[in-house]
Design a protein that fits this description.
The complex is a heterodimer of chains A (about 200) and B (about 200). Chain A is α/β, with parallel strands linked by helices. Chain A contains seven helices and seven strands, in the order H-H-E-H-E-H-E-H-E-H-E-E-E-H. Chain A has two domains: about 5-45; about 55-195, Glutaredoxin, CATH 3.40.30.10. Chain A has a six-stranded mixed sheet. In chain A, helix 3 packs parallel to helix 6 (about 145-150). Chain B has about 200 residues and is of the alpha/beta class. Chain B has a single domain (about 25-195), classed as Glutaredoxin (3-Layer(aba) Sandwich). In chain B, the strands form three sheets. A six-stranded mixed sheet of chain B has the order 5-4-3-7-8-9. In chain B, strands 1-2 form a two-stranded antiparallel ribbon. The radius of gyration of chain B is 18 Å and the shape is globular. The N and C termini of chain B lie far apart (about 40 Å). The chains are: A alpha/beta (about 200), B alpha/beta (about 200). The interface of A and B includes residues 142 and 149 of A.
Chain lengths: ~200, ~200
């Protein structure tokens, strides 16, 4: 090992030690605080999270494929659009739910009904603003009827609409219109404890 | 830092807009009447406050009720198509009636919106979603076609796309044409994406 390499290595070890100490300090200080602040600390201290994949256009068949479950993780699905006021209003709550429950085993996908032309403009702009990390798809269908009917018989296509599936792919909770966050969280807690 | 400030400001403004705009839409909307059911007469005020009954507005060959909105881009995408529908079928004895059931939109908003978009058919204000509940309406635009005896013959979308250049099936017009020709309606329901009706809490 050359002298320079050794110096770099030494620097890394020192840097690592500093990080560990910082981490411990953070952990100790966080332990004494409320749950909400703790979450904030944790998110804030995560270094450079991987940027979410860009939204992708899908057809009705691909959408049905996404809704299938293999018995491992429950799935939350939110249908939305950037032109939909209550969709935008509820999105920060959904991002919070995603951040909180994904590490615990919940899958979450957001399916937008924006125009295809918005896939590279309005949609990513909004998702960036929301700091959204869940996979996002744009349902691109010439006729929305079969897609809507395949999701739920009671759904007429009003946005937003939110569905929670258990790990077998059965709908265990649904809500049309702006979500009631407490109700949704209760349903998620239940489906996560059932599995 | 400047960028951060700008983002915070934007977020704050958005938050204010959300609070001002958003109401919880009720998931427990009653189911819509089945096709073939008779719609019971109702009375609602127009944007000027004058009360109208369904009986006073119905056409001799039928009536189209459409739940519409002031702010919904989907509903607004249909303004010209709805006006044209009203014009096309008036002489043929079918009247179009708009209903605004959004608690977030005032009678004044409805009046201004109709004037701005040249909507000449009557538009009623469904305060408290009495009629939206009776018809199980959930979104805008959402249409109901009643025959001369107020029997429900069609319920659902106007056509398949809010983008007029993508329209290739017009279920509402098809239902009207079939009925005027004395034939049964081939497709009595059809769904499309739309804005939630913002019901009163």
């Amino acid at each position: 090992m050359t002298h320079t390499a050794r110096r770099i290595q030494a620097r890394f070890i020192f840097g690592g030690a500093v990080l560990v100490v910082c981490g411990l300090l953070l952990a100790f200080s966080a332990a004494g605080q409320s749950a909400t602040t703790r979450t904030a600390h944790k998110v804030g201290s995560t270094p450079a999270e991987k940027a979410p994949a860009p939204a992708r256009a899908i057809n009705a068949e691909e959408m049905q494929g996404l809704l299938k479950r293999d018995g491992t993780r429950p799935l939350l699905v939110n249908y939305w659009a950037t032109w939909c006021d209550p969709c935008r209003a509820e999105f920060p709550d959904l991002v919070k739910i995603d951040n909180q429950y994904r590490p615990k085993g919940l899958d979450f996908i957001a399916i937008t009904l924006d125009d295809l032309a918005d896939l590279k403009t309005a949609v990513p702009k909004f998702l960036r603003l929301m700091n959204a990390r869940m996979p996002v798809y744009l349902l691109n269908v010439p006729d929305p009827e079969p897609a809507i009917n395949s999701v739920d018989k009671e759904w007429g296509g009003a946005l937003p609409a939110t569905f929670l599936y258990n790990n077998k792919g059965e709908v265990v909770y649904k809500h049309f219109g702006r979500v009631k966050t407490d109700e949704l969280r209760t349903a998620i807690d239940k489906v996560m404890s059932d599995k | 830092m400047k960028k951060l400030k700008a983002i915070s400001l934007m977020l704050a403004l958005l938050a204010i807009a959300f609070v001002a705009n958003a109401r919880t839409a009720d998931a427990d909307v009653p189911a819509p009447p089945v096709i073939g059911a008779t719609i019971v007469d109702f009375t609602l005020p127009d944007a000027g406050g004058t009360a109208h009954s369904l009986a006073s507005l119905k056409g001799k060959n039928g009536t189209v009720l459409i739940f519409i909105a002031v702010q919904c881009p989907v509903s607004n995408g249909y303004n010209e198509r709805m006006e044209k529908l009203a014009q096309d079928y008036k002489a043929r004895g079918i009247n179009v009636v708009g209903i605004n059931a959004n608690s977030t939109e005032s009678a004044g908003d409805v009046k201004d919106h109709a004037a701005k978009n040249n909507l000449t058919f009557p538009i009623l204000k469904d305060n408290g979603n009495k009629v939206a509940d009776a018809l199980g309406a959930t979104r805008t635009p959402e249409a109901y076609f009643l025959d001369a005896n107020n029997k429900l013959l069609y319920h659902g979308r106007i056509d398949n796309s809010r983008d007029i250049s993508q329209v290739n099936s017009s279920e509402l017009r098809d239902a009207l044409e079939a009925t005027l020709a004395g034939k049964p309606v081939a497709k009595a329901t059809a769904n499309a994406f739309g804005c939630s009706i913002k019901r009163a809490e």
